[in-house]
Amino acid sequence: TRFCKLPGGALDKIKQVVGDGLFTAETSNPKWAIAHRIVTPLFGTMRIRGMFDDMKDICEQMCLRWARFGPDEPLNVCDNMTKLTLDTIALCTIDYRFNSFYRENGSTHPFAEAVVDVMTESFDQSNLPDFVNNYVRFRSMAKFKRQAAELRRQTEDLIAARRQNPVDRDDLLNAMLSAKDPKTGQGLSPESIVDNLLTFLIAGHETTSSLLSFCFYYLLENPDVLRKVQQEVDTVLGSDTITVDHLSNMPYLEAVLRETLRLRDPGPGFYVKPLRDDVVAGKYAVKKDQPLFIVFDSVHRDESTYGAGADEFCPERMLKDSFDKLPPCAWKPFWNGVRACVGRPFAMQQAMLAVAMVVHKFDLIKDESCTLK
């Protein structure tokens, strides 16, 4: 191994909230190694399939709310996708309901609001020098620190309540409380459980929300693609209620999501550091521990791989035969190696379910007054 992940940018800022979670800890950190060995199996295919009914529950809530608005009411897709993904991951991981689609006047659960706020603030901080954050934006920083402390306190209370009153439920929290590291025999420390639960809630909801928001954007911008997705979903489902087994019969929908991730990767790059002095690509000398930013957005739009139309939305290039022929590292929205996203099966199952349910129940119409900036 020549390089290891270096938490930088927004990840470095969000670390103030989630501590040494799976996304933010350095690979050399023993906490990361133990958590990685314990948590990775918890996101295996069979366990994620078992979460389907909870995912469907939240998606049905959103669809019912949309139906009650009627055909003439415009919908804020981004806001709805944030509520959908945050409610879903909370129910699947900690058996907690934010009930975002039942709240009056579009209000948000305080915990959910804090989760969204600290994520947004972390990105804002990462784009500014520290002296601006600490001395010019001191009110925003003070609010950020208050919300971070409150999120950790509430998460600790939730874990304590689960320990005192165990429930017979196969969710992530129960698994994290009981699972042991196969290498050392250790369980996750209380601090590590808090770190990783907050990591999944904060980082996990935002990335899938971005994927779904851009997916619906591309579907509305490409009516022929939307029509193909609807035809595929309608053919597979007919008059049946969607089940987890239906998803494997929707290859075009999966290709649409892959293509969306290629063009609009929620995490378009990440930092690494060389483990020793090295030369990259035969001509770039880099020093040990020198921060390097890997820009996957450029890789995903490389014309030598994707042709002259690399910037165009074309799901057909992501159908199985074409997708399997892509060069290694040509498509990396879930990152790379041992630091690849453990939540990939969760995110893809949730995204496929959400798009399938929406296009099966509704005919989507583009709001011409809305433009992407």
From TrEMBL:
Record-level Gene Ontology MF annotations: heme binding; iron ion binding; monooxygenase activity; oxidoreductase activity, acting on paired donors, with incorporation or reduction of molecular oxygen
Gene3D superfamilies the UniProt entry points to: Cytochrome P450 (1.10.630.10)
Highest taxon of source: Eukaryota
Record CDD domains: CYP120A1
Electron transport among keywords: yes
Protein species of origin: Fusarium bulbicola
Keywords: Electron transport, FAD, Flavoprotein, FMN, Heme, Iron, Metal-binding, Monooxygenase, NADP, Oxidoreductase, Transport
Alphabetized PANTHER family for the sequence: BIFUNCTIONAL ALBAFLAVENONE MONOOXYGENASE_TERPENE SYNTHASE, CYTOCHROME P450 FAMILY 4
Cofactor: heme; FAD; FMN
Name used for this protein in its record: Bifunctional cytochrome P450/NADPH--P450 reductase
